[in-house]
Structures are given as structure tokens and as C-alpha cells.
């Protein structure tokens, strides 16, 4: 990876929980099902066996991805941010557009981003535009609908 995978402690815990659930619970059950299905004879028309092998490959692929992401993760606690006057990783930023429509965005790791909940990834265009911004700063953001200008109204940290 060319850049660090910043993530909040809660985001890292979520990755770890998913990994442990897949590796410790779902995968062993699936292996048992596949072994049972394989013992039933003809595997070419055995739905349990065929589906089980397909699902096992999906789980193994996801486990590999989660393992890589956790290994590259750099856990950053937003509550420990020294400079709280500027928007850095973990900040909750309130911005207003030209029409005074406000949006509340939290800058989080790319693996924990959820735009619908207002959590945007640290490397997203909007987050890159907000990095280092202070209250009152104007930032121009290139969005799919075109370029827009936003004013930083408030910055908060947990």
C-alpha cells in the first residue's frame, strides 16, 4: 500500500469482529457441511457441496482482505487530536453550501465510510478538501454534479 490505512478504534474493532465471526464461527460450520455433503457420494449434483465450496471461497477471500486491511491499519483515536481548531482525522465537520444547506460529515477511515450516515472516507474528495480546514474557511469540492463551494461552520471531536 502506498498510503497508511487510517482507522478509528471503533472501525478497527468492527473489522476484527467480522474477521473473528467468519473465521471462528461461520467457516468451521461450513467446513463441516461440506465434509458431510462430500460423504454423500456424487458431488457433481450435490447442491450442499457445490454451494458450500462456493461460499467457502467467498469467506476465504473476505478473510484475506480483512487480514490485509487490519495488518496495514494505523489506529488513530480522534479524541487524542491535539489541534482541535482544524478538521483532521476523526473530526465531525458541519459545512454549509451557497444556499445555507448544512451537512454534518465525520472524517473516518476508508474501511468504515458510510456516506448515508455522514461518515466519509479520509481519502474521499470531500474529505481531502476539508483536511486542515478551520471554522470560517471556504473549500471548493469537485463533486459528480459539478464543483461546489462549502464553508466550514463547526468542527467537533469526540
From TrEMBL:
Domain called Transcription elongation factor GreA/GreB C-terminal: residue spans: 87-157
InterPro entries cross-referenced by the UniProt entry: GreA/GreB_C_sf, Tscrpt_elong_fac_GreA/B, Tscrpt_elong_fac_GreA/B_C, Tscrpt_elong_fac_GreA/B_fam, Tscrpt_elong_fac_GreA/B_N, Tscrpt_elong_fac_GreA/B_N_sf, Tscrpt_elong_fac_GreB
Pfam families: GreA_GreB, GreA_GreB_N
Domain of life of the source: Bacteria
Keyword flag Cell cycle: no
One term of GO molecular function: translation elongation factor activity
Keywords, sorted A to Z: DNA-binding, Elongation factor, Protein biosynthesis, Transcription, Transcription regulation
Residue ranges occupied by any Transcription elongation factor GreA/GreB N-terminal domain in the UniProt entry: 5-75
Family of the protein in this entry: Belongs to the GreA/GreB family. GreB subfamily.
Reported function: Necessary for efficient RNA polymerase transcription elongation past template-encoded arresting sites. The arresting sites in DNA have the property of trapping a certain fraction of elongating RNA polymerases that pass through, resulting in locked ternary complexes. Cleavage of the nascent transcript by cleavage factors such as GreA or GreB allows the resumption of elongation from the new 3'terminus. GreB releases sequences of up to 9 nucleotides in length.
Name of the molecule in the record: Transcription elongation factor GreB
Organism: Sphingomonas donggukensis
